[in-house]
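Re: [help] complex structure
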Amino acid sequence: MNRRTTRIHSIAILSALTALSGAASAQSSLNVFGVMDAAVRRTNTDGVGHVLSMASGSYTSSRYGFRGKEDLGNGLSASFWLESFLSTDTGLASPEGFQRRSTLSLSHAQWGELRMGRDFTPTHQNWSRFDPFNYVGIGSVQLFSLSAAGNTPVTAAFGSNSNSIQRSSNGVQYILPRNSWGVEGSFTKAFGESKVSANDQHDSIGGRLGINLGPVFVSAASYTTHDDKTISDFKDRAVAASWDAGVVKLSAGLRRFEYKDAKQNNYLIAAIVPFGAHEVKFSFNRAKMGGTAGTTSIDGDSADQLALGYVYHLSKRTVAYATAATMRDKGNARFVVPGSPAGKAGAKSQGFEFGVNHEF
Amino acid sequence: MNRRTTRIHSIAILSALTALSGAASAQSSLNVFGVMDAAVRRTNTDGVGHVLSMASGSYTSSRYGFRGKEDLGNGLSASFWLESFLSTDTGLASPEGFQRRSTLSLSHAQWGELRMGRDFTPTHQNWSRFDPFNYVGIGSVQLFSLSAAGNTPVTAAFGSNSNSIQRSSNGVQYILPRNSWGVEGSFTKAFGESKVSANDQHDSIGGRLGINLGPVFVSAASYTTHDDKTISDFKDRAVAASWDAGVVKLSAGLRRFEYKDAKQNNYLIAAIVPFGAHEVKFSFNRAKMGGTAGTTSIDGDSADQLALGYVYHLSKRTVAYATAATMRDKGNARFVVPGSPAGKAGAKSQGFEFGVNHEF
Amino acid sequence: MNRRTTRIHSIAILSALTALSGAASAQSSLNVFGVMDAAVRRTNTDGVGHVLSMASGSYTSSRYGFRGKEDLGNGLSASFWLESFLSTDTGLASPEGFQRRSTLSLSHAQWGELRMGRDFTPTHQNWSRFDPFNYVGIGSVQLFSLSAAGNTPVTAAFGSNSNSIQRSSNGVQYILPRNSWGVEGSFTKAFGESKVSANDQHDSIGGRLGINLGPVFVSAASYTTHDDKTISDFKDRAVAASWDAGVVKLSAGLRRFEYKDAKQNNYLIAAIVPFGAHEVKFSFNRAKMGGTAGTTSIDGDSADQLALGYVYHLSKRTVAYATAATMRDKGNARFVVPGSPAGKAGAKSQGFEFGVNHEF
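Output below.
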């Protein structure tokens, strides 16, 4: 998403450098980059109340960071990426540090990339890219996979601690190089270190594999977390496909969490209709529990979310947007649209937000 | 204050970009900026003790940040500003994140600016710009408006929590465009969100209006905070004027806090005398309480502060400075010059500091 | 270490600026810089257990920061340096802020430098530069001087609070200018401020002095911390020498901590053998206690550490490295190689790590 703007900054530094040094033998870039996103949001949970608020990161997540690349010759390069959370509305960058991403890579054009540090999990990567709402804002299904969001496999495994749904620390990744077969993929091993589940330091292993078949893209991913001391096998798998038909881009996916006797299936059906500088987005998300989370039966707990969005591209880096969403719970599910007051079993919530998103 | 240096950084990136791309259709800038300020300070509270310390940000606040602007065409632009606290003496940047300012703006040359996020309150803007000591250092009157600084309207309303005196989070601001009448102004609405007073998330509303009449500038501002759960109407109003007579720049102002039965009037009279690279500054500040804060009568509580400063401009970005200040309390007031040991009722304190301030 | 890359970034900004402004009268630079370092590490403490982990900063510390310089004319310049901790493996930048270094300087070519803020202590500077493992990684002796690392003079003086072994806040430093006699040195006074030992705010005084005699460099340093309320004189002294014989660079040193009746001598003998892009490093470290720490006799407590390292320079900014180390405790010493499970008295620990280090 940040490709264009960061290239600008790179070019600036490279060009001046080249001008001075004649033919620069080793190319080097360093970029400061980020996203500022703010929206005015009104949400309501039936029978509980409403909240008028300013939200941060409803089109894409607000963030800032540094990244750079050094050409080492012979197709080899070293690169790094540091990316921090950010709340446009309050200025907070919590939790502290570069917890969105912190990676160091050695890459080769033919052999692929070795990447070390904190990064997205293979399953999250294979899920969020099919969501037209980028996993954020009131149209997102973040709450389906937050720790302590109710009786779910995620809560059963991780409680209120951080989980390994979106990101993993202490990871070694191997990423396939670009190739002519359209195949992409990666393999990740994250070290649990002390084997205590804190700060995403979970012992995890998994990977993803996808294939580009012209306008169709199909992919699958699996990621399993197992900490000797606290967590038995937590299984996270995702399969999804998209079809770019020109006038509309369709996508569909299934992500499944399993922990002991608890199961959760997340379904996604989505569409994006672009026309010139405009874009209309739609998504339907369903979470369906099954089995037992801890000692509580979660059979019959489920939630459906519908989201409709409109985007106007002011430039390649800046958009204005509006989103409306509604969430209906069944059984003892207590999910709400993001930012809405905490729900009660079987509640219905809805919200509306409009905002501006600016990449730098 | 940072205009000059940041323009340099912008130009660097722009020029190289333009050179490469031919005529760049959209202009873009990204700046890293900040202030490093350190001073050696000695303060003394009569009958309590003295402290020898290194202070940070006594000429202007130490800080660092990122800001940028994108030209969207037709007079429209998008811009952002992220600015963090910084302590030169210890390296601490607390509280974490960009809590000095975090804003995203859409601006139009004729229609003005829509700004979202965390920023100064209208009343603070209308107060600090008339203070020759920039609201910081031992010559400043920050303690007059800190939460929990004694029995004052601010403490009665906010207790030891953060207040909405200097900054507001979750704000939507409309700012008037530059115009030929010399009129400037803004309107701010900040969302309380959960209506619980934490992290400056107060429900506030207000604005400011000023007019430039040649060498004279007059302005007024009002800002009211009301959280259903914790805070009744806290009223903050400020009127001030300045006259630039060439050999001396004079300013005077009144800021009034009101909360239930408690009142506080802050008076400011100040002068700046520039001669070449030198500058002599003087300010007199008085805080005068009245009524009842909680159940305590604060009638007769007051404090007077006198400050004298000298500045030597080593360049446009770097100055050396020295400041001396004294504070006298009456009644049960316990204010001290910043950095001096906590006072006792009716105490007298004084201090001296000399330091260096460098903008980047 | 960062000289090369940061000069590149400076040049970029300077050159574009010069091109635009014609002959720039005042030169100005602003650099974003840092190090990303990640290693896979396996450590083992005999009779306790092993840990497989990802480590950050085993060749040089991971970090990021900002620094800049302004030429004020007549040999005078203003400069600043902000440098933050960073964990490549998790993205954490804790403790928050720029606690590796936060300084503001006025420098003169003939008169030397006045530096204010948080920086290395003179003794740490005089110790770490002789360590081929840069005081980090499993070959380092960091644990010999951490607070609360066992019964040592450091623990007796500082308990589990931060100490003044590596860095001091609130410091005023004077640093000698470059001169033709090969003499270098500095003097530091750090203010204790409230005289309570928190956040490195210790009342300290000391300096260092060294002389370059062709291939031989000899230096000595002393730093004493004394807080009225909590700490009597804690004495930290270091003498060391290095000899660059071309095929091998040898170094040796002694650092001595004293607090009341407790003494600790740290001995270092080290060698670096470079050949082309390769480098082999060796170090032997011994910590030997004596006297009484609190009420506990520490006579006979000691620890020996052996480290062997290999470095391959992929470029001037990027290296791959591998290190092996072993630690043997005697008496009641409980030191372990960094990252190994906490030891027991007289334990033996060892470890191996290989990683990548990239400067930007």
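The domain at 30-359 of chain B is CATH 2.40.160.10 (Porin).
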